Amino acid sequence: MESHWEQVKQIFKEKLSASAYQLWIEPLQMSLSPEGEILLDCPNPFFLKWVENHYLAAIRREFQALGGDEPEVRLRLLKNERRVEPAAPCRQHVLPNFARPEGFSRLLNQHFTFERFVVGASNRLAFQASRALASDDTLYSRTLFLSAPSGLGKSHLSQAVGNYIQANFRRQGILYLTAEDFANEMVAALRQGTMPQFKEKFRRQCDTLLLEGVHFLSGKDKIQTELCYTLDFLADQNKKLVFTSPYLPAEIPQLRQELVSRFSAGVITPIEPPDFATRVQILSRKASDRQVRVPQEVLEHLATYLTQDVRQMVSALDNLLLKAATLKVPIDLELADQVLQDFQVARQRLRIEDIQQLTCRVYQVSLTELLGKSRRKKVVKARNLTIYLCRTYLQKNIRELARAFRRTHSTVLHSLECIERDRKTSPAFAAELAFLEEKLQTSPQWQQCVRSAGHPHPSG
Predict the structure, then answer these.
(1) Residue 344 pLDDT > 80, yes or no?
(2) Residue 80, domain member (yes or no)
(3) What average pLDDT does the structure give for the chain?
(4) pLDDT value at position 446?
(5) For residue 357, how many C-alpha atoms fall within 13 Å in the half-sphere facing its CB?
(6) The domain containing residue 39 runs over which residues?
(7) DSSP label at 301?
(8) Residues 130, 170: one domain?
(9) In a 3-state reduction of DSSP, which class is residue 446?
(10) Nearest to 92 by CA among 213, 206, 203
C-alpha cells in the first residue's frame, strides 16, 4: 500500500502546480490502521479541512484505480492521532416536516442572511427586491426570479429570504428545495401512489416557495405540468415565490411557454459580476469574518484579477491565509501572486478591452464603430474576429461577450460560427487570423500572462 501512495502522489505531482503539490500533498503522511484503512496524517485542522474539501475525493479515486476496490481513506490530525471522519457527501435538501417548523431552519444556511450580503451596483436591485419580498413590502411583486452565473449570490439571496421569514414570521411555512428535489419527490409520489400527499405538501403547507435551479426542469414535460398547477395555486393564494437559475426564463430550452410565463410573472433580476469596489469589499468582509488582517494592497490585487466568481474569490482568500499560516510567511503581494498562479487566473491581465484595441489598430476602425451598428465589411470582420479572440483566449461565455460587444446572444453565436467556417475554408482568412493571433501573443499584456502564470497558449 505504501507503493500505491507513492504512485498516487506522483499522479498529483503531475496534475498540480509545484506550489500546490508541495503545500497540500507532499506533507501528507500515510499509515494503515489495524482495520486496514488508509490514514493520511495532516499537520493541523486547517490543513485537514482544505485537503478534505479539495483533494480527498480525488485521492480515493486514484487509490481505487490502482487497487481495484474502493479503499477506506481517512484523514486525521498528526498531533494527537485523533481520527477525523470525512464530512458526509453533500445531498440535496429533503422536504421539511411542516408539523415541526422549528426544525426547518437547519435546512437553510444560517450564514446566508441579508446582513452578510455585500451590496454593490451589480446586485443592488436583486438585493432590494429580495429584501422587499421577504419583509412584505408591497412595492414589489410576490414572485421573484434571480438569474446569475454560478457564484454570484443568487442562492445567498434566495436563502436570505427564507432566513428572514423564519426569524420574523415564524408561523409561515417555508419550503426551500431545488428543482431536482421537486422532480425526485414527484417521481417517488407517482411510484408510491402518494400524489395527494405530495400536492398537499406543496399547495397547502407552503407560504413561501424557494425553488433553486429551475433550468433542471428542461425537457421534463410531466413535471413542468405539475409545477404549473402548483404555482397557479400558490399565486392565487398570494404566496411568495422565489426562483433561481443561471439563465433567464426565456433562455431555458425545452421549457413550456406556460412555465416561462409563470417564472416571468414577477420581478426578474439578473445579477452581474461584481465591480472592483464590491470585490474589494467582499474580500475585506471575508477576511474580517476569519479574524485575519489582510493588507489593503493585497485585497485590491486579488480583486483586480479575480473578477467573475465570488466563490473563487473566497477560495483564493482562504488559500492565501492557509499558505501564510502553513509556510509562516507574511501576507503580501508576492504570496498573492502565487495564489493567482495556482488559480490560473493570471491570464485575466489580458482584458477584452486589450483585444478590442488591438483589432481596432490592425483594421483601422474606431472602438465606436466596433461596438456600434455599422455593417461595413471591414468593421464586421474586425468585430467577429475580436469576439472570437475573446472567446478563445479569455474563455468568456456568450452572455459576457454579448454584454461586452452590445450584441444579442444569437449575434455572438453567429460571429463565432462565421470565424470557424472561414478559417477552415479560406487559407487567406486563416493566415489573417494567424497574423492577428501573433500580434496578440506578442503584446505586453499577453507576455505578462506568460511570465506570471505559464500559459503560453489559449485553452479554448
Answers:
(1) no
(2) yes
(3) 82
(4) 54
(5) 7
(6) 2-84
(7) H
(8) yes
(9) helix
(10) 213
